[in-house]
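Late entry, written up from scratch paper. The run itself happened at the end of the previous shift, but nothing got recorded in the book at the time, so transcribing now.
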Amino acid sequence: MAGWQRWEALTRKGLLQAPRIRYQLAIKPKDHRQMAKPAQGSTATTEWDRDAALTTARILLEIKAVNFRPEEPYTFTSGWKSPVYIDCRRIIYFPRARAKICDMAVEKIDRHIGFETIEAVAGGETAGIPFAAWIADRMAAPMAYVRKQPRGHGRAALIEGDVPEGKRTLLVEDLTTDGGSKIRFANALRDAGAIVNHTFVVFFYGVFPGAFETLARMDIALHHLCTWWDVLEACKDRPYFSDSALSEVRHFLEDPVAWSAAHGGISSPEEALARRSAAAL
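Output as recorded:
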């Protein structure tokens, strides 16, 4: 009996264990949109980040927090026009969905910021408040929230709960389009003595230019679970929307500035900043 025949016979009888052969497939996507696309300027993502992004996208689709309306575009406070809109406020109604998203949020924070780096959590009025509370509870951290403007009565406080003076504070909101809305809250916290170098959102549009640069100029890092590219990736699993709607959304994501300008919106980050500055006066 030849050597290989003897080895095969012993293997069949269980007297030898066949070696485990590992195969690694090197598959190159046909184009960059086949993978969930990280936002411009983001750090390299891991397999966990990708899984968390797609899980978040599927949850948002399931609870109908994702809105596509190419024929009647949405207008954001910054002036951008968009055929897509995300309503993260719907998450608070669904206990299992919000629990999963908040669990992933804390895991993301631990992985990208650190286990003991954050000493306090602050939510932005109003949509950021519930997410800040759930995240702070999981992190066993103090929690406060920041008003958009002081109340006209009582203490006229801008920060409620307590001022996290001298504490490394995580600013939490539900979403961001271009990062501009975080500036007011971060400045309010810093003026009160908090140390703010990180902000977390469940959803980041990930398409409008200047978001990371806007926050980087303030020495603030933006962390998020999911973007529109992840939503498009998740839409491949089930027919949540028509092919024509998805096609128009893809055109928007590939060139959001031109799409906004063509539909009556602003056409530059400078215009967005000017509008936000004027609204704050």
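The chain has one domain: 46-274.
(Scratch paper discarded after transcription.)
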